[in-house]
Amino acid sequence: MAKTPDASRRSDRSRRAILDAALELVGEVGYNKLTIEAIAARAGVGKQTIYRWWPSKAAVLLDASLALAGDAGTEGGWEGFPDTGDLAADLKYVLRATVDEMNDGKYDAPARALTAAGATDPALGAQFNEKLLEPQLALYEERLRTARDAGQIAEDTDLRLAVELLLGPLTHRWLLRTAPLTHAFTDAIVDRVLGGIARVS
Amino acid sequence: MAKTPDASRRSDRSRRAILDAALELVGEVGYNKLTIEAIAARAGVGKQTIYRWWPSKAAVLLDASLALAGDAGTEGGWEGFPDTGDLAADLKYVLRATVDEMNDGKYDAPARALTAAGATDPALGAQFNEKLLEPQLALYEERLRTARDAGQIAEDTDLRLAVELLLGPLTHRWLLRTAPLTHAFTDAIVDRVLGGIARVS
Fold it and tell me: Where is the HTH tetR-type domain (chains A, B) (predicted)?
């Protein structure tokens, strides 16, 4: 029997409640202590409802993180990476938006818990890299490729390295909490990665 | 009564056994599951011996990490940051040594477990930053200051940002395991941070 529209709406609501509960809880208790039972209780659904859709808590969190990243894109008002022709401006725009997310507990808490869990659990880390991180890095690479093709950055630029130069300092300061995450910081990263620090003689 | 030389030697041996056990165990089970009882059992000492010297497992691990960093310096054959006058060569030397440590389980496992724990436990993270990370970052800053004073890098270089540009990409690749950690990678970081990626017209 086909689902009625009402049943389908109820499913969507349950699904979203589960994903929201998973994100809240992983931020509160960390990945290791998170259980399917707790997610079900917080979402107000039965455990079996979760197991019908996902095989494990890692799978729930992966979908929850994808949904969260989608929300961030929508709230930030951009789909994909901006390309105004001005590479520095486009990179600054995206890195400022990234910093704003890192400074927002709604994004920070689950992202931090999952990054920490992935760092010490290689299988989990590989899953999150494949589904979440690599697609993001690819957007940066694509924008840098366009800039390279347009002769705006050196022909021999290793695009992956360039992405790591942009995101590495930000990730370092975010995870290790060594200093405040500001737009001035991300702007300076972009300027220095493009221009280098060596004195031009 | 003053300690006899024998008692003092026994103390040193116990102390070292405790630090070694703490490092091994945190790499094996992670920070959250580590207990003073388990460290005592692995080290072959009583729990009270540990509590006589350290108030908490965080304090044991902090001293253990400092001892490990000291060993690394000794094995690497350098005390402090090299200054040959050639900034790029000196940075490459130190970053290559850092990558070698990251690729060595003896250093990687405890450092990874503690970094992950500190990322989600602000008080623990702050303690490790103050005692372990900041003194390391200060060595890089000092070397870059000398280079700036010698006119080798731009006068307006933000030294802390420069350190983050050097170490951020390395930390990103290490923690997230996105790609192999090689000397070619760290050499390329140094070249690009010094020279930038923008095409010089």
Answer: 12-72
**How many CB atoms are located within 10 Å of the residue A120 CB?**
21
DSSP-assigned letter for residue A198:
B
* Strand, coil or helix: A39: helix
In a shared domain, residues B109 and B176: yes
Instruction: Please report which helix (H) or strand (E) contains residue A195, including its range.
Output: helix A183-195
In three-state secondary structure terms, B153 is strand
Do B30 and A195 lie within an 8 Å CB cutoff? no
- Full residue range of the structural domain in which residue A144 is found: 78-195
Domain count, chain B: 2
Q: Which residues are A198's β-sheet partners?
A: B153
CB contact under 8 A, B197 and A155: no
Residues A30, A83, single domain; the answer is no
Say yes or no for a CB contact (<8 Å) between A153 and B199.
yes
Reported as a single tens digit per residue, the pLDDT across A31-85 is: 989 999 999 999 999 999 999 999 999 999 999 999 998 877 666 555 679 999 9
Same domain, A1 and A52: yes
- Enter the ipTM: 0.90
Distance in angstroms (rounded) separating the CA atoms of residues B101 and B106: 8
Q: How far apart are CA A168 and CA A166, in angstroms?
A: 6
